[in-house]
Design goal:
Elements (H helix, E strand, L loop, with lengths): L9 E9 L5 H9 L17 E6 L3 E7 L9 H16 L2 E7 L6 H11 L5 E6 L6 H13 L5 E4 L8 H11 L17 H17 L8 E11 L2 E10 L2 H8 L4 H18 L2 E10 L7 H6 L4
Parallel strand pairs: 1-3, 1-4, 4-5, 5-6, 8-9
Antiparallel strand pairs: 2-3, 7-8
Bound molecules: guanosine-5'-triphosphate.
The site of guanosine-5'-triphosphate has 24 residues, from helix 1.
Subcellular location: Cytoplasm; Cell membrane
Keywords: Cell membrane, Cytoplasm, GTP-binding, Membrane, Nucleotide-binding, Ribosome biogenesis, RNA-binding, rRNA-binding
Family: Belongs to the TRAFAC class TrmE-Era-EngA-EngB-Septin-like GTPase superfamily. Era GTPase family.
């Protein structure tokens, strides 16, 4: 409280960086307390910067869940990297997530080098400590310190919750004083169709496992109130080859029906109403290099 009794709030942006699969989505959900970022055991699920908003009486912490940072390889990853750099410029702090199970590798060093140039304080969280002994964790904490990028390093388990509160308290302390950016009830500012597309994509990945790589993108074109208590959602799953399309559709359409049913349930849970999901599969050869499609999909 200030002298005149008005509450002092802190608010700002924390840019979350880390190799694919380190647990960025799981941590985002743990911090925000809702399912805003999709979680999958496949690397590189998160292509868009998905923001989660945590609001408490004294702070609003806006997490920017960065796409997996990689060396530029094609148009998509160059764009992703551009996005990472601009998010860092606009952030109040950066959080580098490491995987305790895997230790510090070249990918982590690459991101750390990028973060060294960030004009904001950098914090490291070493995740998945539930999978490691105390000694193994200590070794990774030391390797994290040796990156010489962060002043503070926190061991956590995003899945189990261990250490998450301490980390959040520290991050909140790095935010500048200021009013809230979003209404307190908001947990994500994503356009609804992007969020729904992520939920559908999660089901596609879950069911197709290794067979269909990360070349699947989902676009939600239409969300329409059809009648009381029923929302019509039209989605297209874009793949790169005819054989991927075949896998997604499956023998006699079994796979696409299973994906559709599971995705519809997720959408119903999200929207709190019955959903009619119209899901089609289309082939778009090398969409990764198609700037116009990337724009339409909201990948900047
Ligand atoms: N044991 C354990 N597993 C975890 C923990 N945090 C995340 N995971 C698992 O690690 C896998 C990847 O987690 P995600 O949250 O999807 O990782 P991500 O960094 O968002 O991945 P991308 O979006 O692909 O970059 C999932 O299977 C999670 O359940 C943790 O603290 N402990």
């Amino acid at each position: 409280m200030t002298v005149d009794g008005a509450p002092t709030t802190r608010s700002g942006f924390v840019a979350l960086a880390g190799r694919p699969n380190v647990g960025k989505s799981t941590l985002t959900n743990a911090i925000v307390g809702a399912k805003v970022a999709i979680v999958s055991d496949k690397p590189q699920t998160t292509r868009r910067a998905i923001r989660g908003v945590r609001t408490t009486p004294d702070h609003q912490l806006i997490l920017v869940d960065l796409p997996g940072v990689q060396r530029p390889r094609d148009v998509l990853t160059e764009r992703m990297q551009g996005r990472v750099e601009s998010e860092l410029r606009d952030a109040d702090a950066a959080l580098l997530l490491l995987n305790a199970e895997q230790g510090v590798g070249p990918g982590d060093r690459f991101i750390a080098a990028l973060l060294k140039r960030a004009p904001v304080p950098v914090v490291i969280a070493v995740n998945k400590i539930d999978r490691c002994s105390k000694h193994e964790t200590a070794v990774v904490l030391q390797a994290a310190a040796d990156l010489e990028v962060a002043d503070d390093i926190f061991p956590i388990s995003a899945r189990g919750g261990q250490g998450v509160q301490t980390l959040v308290d520290h991050l909140a302390g790095l935010l500048p004083p200021g009013p809230y950016y979003f209404p307190p009830e908001d947990r994500s500012d994503q356009a609804e169709n992007v969020l729904l597309a992520e939920l559908v994509r999660e089901q596609v990945l879950r069911r197709t496992r290794q067979e269909v790589p990360h070349s699947v993108e989902v676009e939600v074109g239409e969300i329409e109130d059809r009648e009381d208590d029923l929302i019509y959602v039209r989605a297209v799953a874009w793949v790169e080859t005819d054989s991927q399309k075949g896998i997604l559709i499956g023998a006699g359409g079994r796979m696409i029906r299973a994906i559709g049913t599971a995705a519809r349930r997720e959408l119903e849970r999200e929207l709190g109403t019955r959903v009619h999901l119209d899901l089609t599969v289309r082939v778009r050869k090398s969409w990764r290099t198609d700037e116009r499609l990337l724009d339409r999909l909201g990948i900047e």
